Amino acid sequence: MAHISTTVYLNQGVDHFLGFDVHAPARLHQAARFDLEILDQAPSAAAVPGALEIIFEQLNIARPQHPWALRYRLAGHRSLSVGDVVVLGETAWACASVGWTPISADQLRAAIPAAR
């Protein structure tokens, strides 16, 4: 099985539930980092939607099945929601009200306080 490096950022910006950088600048805090197992032989663009679906589900259910999701919950983090960001390998995705929106490396960097 292949793995893809994954980082989850929770958005702590004002009005973050309206979306990433919609009404106020995003302010991201790293909540988790893990290697996600994927079924494909090598990470590819086709694997991204399925990976995002698994991550969203596991970080929003009461009894997650994956060790990384259990660690996330035990750390006391809230559910993944609109405005939060998941980085899969070299791509970053903002959780939207429906689905996911790709964000650029510059947008990601600007939203991480230590990177400013």
Task: Pick out its properties.
single chain; 116 residues; alpha+beta; five-stranded antiparallel β-sheet; 3 helices; 5 strands; globular
Q: Characterize the main sheet.
A: 5 strands, antiparallel
- Structural class, please? alpha+beta
Uncertain residue segments: none
Number of domains: 1
Mean pLDDT across every amino acid position: 91
Based on CA inertia axes, which overall geometry fits? globular
* Radius of gyration using CA atoms only: 14 Å
Element pattern in H and E:
EEHHEEEH
Can you characterise this structure?
The protein is globular, with a radius of gyration of 14 Å. The chain has a 5-stranded antiparallel sheet with strand order 2-1-3-4-5. It has 3 helices and 5 strands; from the N terminus they run ββααβββα. The protein has 116 residues and is α+β, with helices and mostly antiparallel strands.
Short description:
The chain contains 3 helices and 5 strands. By secondary structure, it is α+β, with helices and mostly antiparallel strands.
Which secondary structure elements does this structure contain, and how are they paired or packed?
Layout: E1 2-11, E2 28-38, H1 47-58, H2 67-74, E3 85-88, E4 91-95, E5 100-103, H3 105-111
Antiparallel strand pairs: 1-2, 1-3, 3-4, 4-5
